[in-house]
Design brief:
- With 567 residues, the protein is an alpha+beta fold.
- The protein is built from 15 helices and 26 strands.
- 28% of the residues lie in helices and 24% in strands.
- Strands 2, 4, 6, 8, 9, 10, 11, 12 and 15 form a nine-stranded mixed β-sheet that branches. Strands 24-21-20-25-26 form a five-stranded antiparallel β-sheet.
- A hairpin with a 2-residue loop joins strand 25 and strand 26.
- Helix 4 packs across helix 15 and helix 11 crosses helix 12.
- It is elongated and about 80 Å long.
């Protein structure tokens, strides 16, 4: 299997998925609705109560939300769409129902489930992600209580009769084993969960509903493995999306390995990128994580080797060691990689001298080996000797099922703290927008078998005390230099994409040099979907930006007479 770090493996072994759609058997009917999950958002102000009295047997329109259904049933157009994988259906959107019990709004209490409206769903075909069909002929299986905010009476003007403003395409995991949200620990994802997890997707969907009300739809595709991604027909999917605007969201992690690793939501990178390209060619804009070509820039990490000699970007010297060299003679490959780094150090010294930039070391005594297309602090190994580097090259490049074509070898950079800068909706014409919405300060606290594991997390005050000897001037110097560095990266990103990324996390390593002085180095350019690292308002800020990005381009199929109604 793909190598995972021990911390993640222990969490995965201890964690058990909640009851519901992942079970091997059908788990009952529509069940008791929740208010939405994972982020505690209040009921949407964009979705007011418009009903005051409802009579038993009355037909109504109901806005269905997948994250509220504990058993995870969604609407399909036919049986094969739900029982065959990849399964495809509408998980959020308007559908039909009838009132089971007469309801009087004066007795409604949002906190008392028994005062919600009791309905029976009348859509004929429902499945869950494991392919189990809902028995719609059994009244108990289709009866639920629903909040009145999501009900509209027939025959009256409402959102249910209006054109859909936004169609979201969610491509997400539907396999037997659920995705571990990894919510615990300083290096965990917090309650929002990891990006392919139900926690994260539910949190995103809650934010969409809070901001838009019932004016959107979500079509979801549930896949079980990489191969199934190739079975998704982009032109046909495009016909299912009826909104004035459309956006695709890929909740998965691409890796350079074959399937068989038993890690949910990890897919072969080529399969994901091919699907994204096909969707984009069909006019379905990628809104998470990034356009396919830009996502490759972030995930491959090849920019580290391509730009490491640039004196203005402060990147650790990096070379790429071919797979064939590792397979043939790892010791020789390690020696050549070390020589390459020293050659780069000489070149850097020459370049800096010619440009009157600060001089840097001419030799590289130690470093790290790492893989691109790798996630959650996996596949990074420190080395100090040729033997350690040789072992790292073999262990990283020769894992079971590996399609790795090269391994990065990078110089070691001493630093006191890593500053994680969250840049949201940078506008090239407005340098003020290049400033971070949040900075999180972290320090790795353990290194097992030369691999990096957990880290401590600090606020600025804690960083001063623990990492910078209470030298506020030195930390301020590091922060100012980091902002200059980030500005250069934003300018560089404009060359990679005609429109800047909605969100980028710039990880900058900082070292105190002495009183009032610091040095900074680029550590990582992290794509949209990176861990929030305990930033409390992170999901709210980032999800709102993600949603706004969906309205950048109007659907080619939208009625030109329909007015844009968002932001």
């Amino acid at each position: 299997p793909v190598r995972v770090n021990k911390f993640y493996l222990l969490l995965a072994m201890a964690w058990r998925p909640p009851a519901g759609p992942y079970g091997g058997q059908a788990k009952g009917g529509k069940g008791k609705w929740g208010k939405g999950k994972s982020n505690g958002l209040e009921q949407s102000e964009a979705c007011p109560i418009t009903v005051s009295m409802l009579s038993a047997g009355e037909p109504v329109d109901v806005f269905h939300r997948y994250c509220q259904d504990p058993n995870g049933y969604f609407m399909t157009q036919n049986g094969s769409s739900g029982m065959m994988h990849p399964s495809i259906g509408r998980t959020d959107g308007w559908t039909t129902a009838r009132i089971s019990q007469s309801w009087d709004g004066q007795y409604y209490n949002p906190q008392d489930y028994n005062t919600w409206v009791e309905i029976q769903w009348t859509h004929p075909t429902w499945y869950n992600r494991r392919g189990h069909k809902l028995d719609v002929n059994n009244p108990a299986m289709i009866t639920q209580r629903v909040k009145p905010e999501q009900i509209r009476q027939r025959g009256k003007p409402s959102e249910a009769q209006q054109p859909t403003r936004l169609s979201l395409l969610h491509i997400r995991w539907g396999g037997q084993q659920a995705v571990n949200p990894v919510t615990e620990g300083a290096g965990g994802w917090g309650q929002i969960g990891s990006t392919p997890s139900d926690n994260y997707i539910n949190g995103w969907e809650d934010n969409v509903f809070k901001l838009m009300g019932p004016t959107y739809e979500i079509v979801s595709v549930f896949f079980q493995n990489s191969e199934e991604l190739s079975k998704i027909s982009a032109p046909l999917i495009r016909l299912l999306l009826k909104g004035q605007h459309v956006g695709a969201f890929y909740f998965m992690w691409p890796i350079t390995f074959q399937d068989g690793h038993d890690t949910p939501a990890y897919v072969n990178k080529s399969c994901q990128i091919d699907l994204m390209v096909q969707m984009e060619a069909a006019g379905i804009h990628t809104r998470f994580p990034h356009h396919s070509h830009l996502y490759k820039v972030f995930a491959s990490k090849e920019w580290t080797a391509q730009l490491c000699l640039h004196p203005l970007l402060n990147i650790p010297l990096t070379t790429m060691v071919s797979r064939q060299a590792i397979v043939t003679d790892p010791d020789k490959a390690a020696a050549q990689a070390m020589k390459a780094l020293n050659n780069l150090a000489e070149a850097r010294s020459q370049w800096n001298s010619e440009l009157y930039a600060p001089a840097k070391a001419r030799t590289v005594p130690k470093g790290v080996a790492k893989l691109g297309w790798s996630w959650e602090a996996m596949d990074v190994t420190a080395w100090k000797t040729k033997q350690e580097l040789s072992h790292a090259l073999s262990s990283l490049g020769e894992q079971p099922g590996s399609n790795v074509d090269q391994v990065f070898v990078q110089e070691w950079v001493d630093f006191d703290v890593e500053m994680r800068h969250f840049i949201v909706e940078a506008d090239f014409a407005d340098p003020e927008s290049w400033k971070p919405k949040q900075i999180v300060y972290t320090v790795f606290k353990s290194k097992e078998d030369n691999a990096f594991r957990n880290f401590d997390r600090y606020d600025r005050k804690g960083t001063l005390q623990k990492c910078f000897q209470n030298d506020d001037a030195a930390l301020a110097d590091a922060e100012q230099q980091a902002q200059v560095l980030i500005s250069r990266w934003i300018q560089w990103l404009q060359a990679q994409s005609h429109e800047l990324p909605v969100v980028t996390r710039f990880d900058i390593m900082a070292k105190r040099l002495g009183p009032g002085r610091a040095a900074v180095t680029t550590g990582e350019l992290t794509e949209l979907g990176g861990c929030f690292l305990g930033w409390p308002k992170g999901p709210e800020v980032v999800f709102a930006a993600m949603l706004r990005s969906c309205f950048k381009d109007r659907s080619a199929l939208a009625d030109d007479k329909i007015e844009n109604g968002y932001y």
